[in-house]
Design a protein that fits this description.
InterPro entries: RNaseH-like_sf, Transposase_11. It comes from Corynebacterium comes. One of its GO terms (molecular function) is DNA binding. The chain contains 10 helices and 9 strands. By secondary structure, the chain is of the alpha+beta class. A hairpin with a 6-residue loop joins strand 5 and strand 6.
Amino acid sequence: MAETRTMLPMIHQFQDAYGVEDVTVVADAGMFSAGNKAAIIESGLHYILGVKFTDVPYPVALWRRNNPGQDYTDQQIWTYADRTGRGPNGVPHSLTYYQYSWDRARRTLKGIDEQVAKAEKAVAGKLPVKRNRFVDLKAPNKQVNWSLVTKNKALAGLKGYETSRVDLPAEQVIHAYRQLLKIEKAFRMSKSDLKARPIYHHKRESIDAHLSVVMAAMAVGHLLEERSGLSLKRLVRTLKKYRTFEVQIAGQLIHAASPVPPEISELIERIHAG
């Protein structure tokens, strides 16, 4: 409940400072309760939210019934319109898009198979029963919950996105939500690598200075990724093997450097290109 008490005032301040009228809040499902979503709507803002579901969504299930034996195609999208609240001319107040991703399904199914293998070992007494959702402890004898395994596999690859932006195509809504991955990556970088936490400072000037340095470092990091085409972690791992150094020989200071292969020279040139 605390998000809207801090988030809404910050958004309104941003709107006033930069003259922005049309704002869409993008967040995952865990951040928004029904009350928070209502507060966003009452404030005249739009939203794009990730959707949680425990069963195959209705439009997907309907498609399955109408196309028996047919597999999903990669990036296939289904649309569900909220019929409980419609605006003028029958325009729905919100739309929910469900998309299937082959790569997401592959990763999910791999994770399920790994958890099932651990569950079977736990049931056989070869591993202690820790947190494994596929172990049924309510049965007379602990056993693998195969019905839950089947249910989770049926959901593999599916992701839902709910939005009040009924004027945007599904692809644009989904793309906007996926930008959260970049934001989350930036937060992880700022909190861990750059230690962007005010607890390290006590005075306002120190906090402002520290966060300014952090933001500048993040900007440099994003620029390096954009120009090199590599992740920052991979870029650092690649370049840290090549160093310049100074050697003192018989009173003479000699500047030397590790030999740089052609592909690394090309990478450095891409970074320096403005």
